[in-house]
Specification:
alpha+beta, magnesium ion binding, binds 2'-deoxycytidine-5'-triphosphate, DNA polymerase, domain 1, binds calcium ion, disordered C terminus, Alpha-Beta Plaits
């Protein structure tokens, strides 16, 4: 197997830099403000300028402000980052349809049938980096190896804006030499349990009593480490089935007027129904991005499938409800559908 893993660099902060180029070069800190007091909340991520000076994801905003009172503090705009992410994932789909989107900024591509060796995989990686930069001005780091875990480790080693191959020989070396806390999925708690048992490297797992290991860290993690240590790990790339499908559009100007919003809403519905490819949803969500970029939604589940006409009608009802319950103006409007009716038998013949 040849796995190519893509991890977007300091992602939320980088999107902010792309949107506001004037903040580039300065420490930028993206925050999740909880809203309880002015500065309560946590750091979601920071650019490398801020990291160099000691800022970390998860740190309380108050603490970050003690360290860097003059950094640029921005509220998290998840909706925007998700859009950029979706567009980058679509670029990645051009390189392999076997793609596992692991999070907003990570994807694994199975490129076994697309390249003949790591050299070609590396070149594909360079091409992907260039394409993403050209289209979105976002830098990413790429890791390539024989399985998902070592592809991710390769990316961790090459961050930021890097690309690295871990070939089979280096996998064998890392099994002996890499600190066990560097293994994806092994958090600090598991790592310290392992260290107490005297397990510092993957190789140590092989000389350790499996039952004892299982008791300490649980069966799933114990099995995972044994497979890795034996160099037999080969989890396939899992193409996630899309559980929901939606579309958002931006209004001409922020509004609370149903007549202004309606054409945009119906346009979003038309586009989703086109994308549905005959799948029939039972749940509809109306999704609105408010003027302050807060995202809210209202939904309804039917006992039967939702036709496009029902979707028009129901979305307007949900919009009225949302406007009655919220007094802000709407900036973007859209719909999301889920709970698809299984077209029994059909999906075996059509690729739905
Ligand atoms: N994130 C968050 N809260 C955290 C950690 C991460 O909200 N405690 C968000 C913000 C990140 C995104 O998830 O931009 C991806 O997380 P990563 O750990 O991949 O970190 P970055 O992409 O920010 O940085 P790196 O360049 O190290 O990949
Ligand atoms: Ca990541
Ligand atoms: Ca990242």
């Amino acid at each position: 197997m040849i796995v190519l893993f893509v991890d977007f660099d300091y992602f939320y902060a980088q999107v902010e830099e792309v949107l506001n180029p004037e903040i580039r070069g300065k420490p930028v800190i993206v925050c999740v403000f909880s809203g309880r007091t002015q500065d309560s909340g946590a750091v979601a991520t920071a650019n490398y300028e801020a990291r160099k000076l000691g800022i970390k994801a998860g740190m309380p905003i108050i603490k970050a402000k003690e360290i860097l009172p003059n950094a640029i503090y921005l509220p998290m705009r998840k909706e925007l980052y998700q859009q950029v992410s979706n567009r980058i994932m679509n670029i990645l789909r051009e390189y392999s349809d076997k793609i596992e989107i692991a999070s907003i900024d990570e994807a694994y591509l199975d490129i076994t049938n697309k390249v003949k060796d790591f050299k070609e995989a590396y070149n594909m990686g360079l091409e992907i980096k260039n394409k993403i930069y050209e289209k979105e001005k976002i830098t990413v780091t790429i890791g390539i190896s024989k399985n998902k875990v070592f592809a991710k480790i390769a990316a961790e080693m090459a961050k930021p804006n890097g690309i690295k191959v871990i070939d089979d020989e280096e996998v064998r070396r890392l099994i002996r030499e890499l600190d066990i806390s560097e293994i994806p999925g092994i958090g600090s708690i598991t790592a310290s349990k392992l260290k107490e048992l005297g397990i510092n490297k993957l190789i140590d797992v092989l000389n350790f009593n499996f039952e004892t290991l299982k008791k300490s860290i649980g069966e799933a993690k114990a099995n995972y480490l044994v497979l890795l240590a034996r160099d037999e790990y080969s989890e396939p790339i899992k193409e996630r089935v899309r559980r929901s499908i939606g579309r958002m559009v931006t209004l001409k100007k922020n509004s609370r007027n149903i007549d202004d919003i309606k054409p945009f809403l119906f346009k979003a519905i038309d586009e989703v129904y086109h994308k549905l490819n005959g799948k029939i949803p039972r749940t509809i969500y109306l999704v609105a991005v408010m003027e302050d970029l807060d995202v809210i939604s209202r939904g309804k589940t039917f006992s039967h499938g939702i036709s496009k006409e029902t979707a028009y009608k129901e979305s307007l009802k949900l919009l009225e409800k949302l406007l009655a319950e919220d007094n802000r103006k709407i900036r973007r409007i859209g719909v999301r559908f889920s709970k698809f009716i299984e077209a029994i038998g059909l999906d075996r013949f059509f690729n739905v």
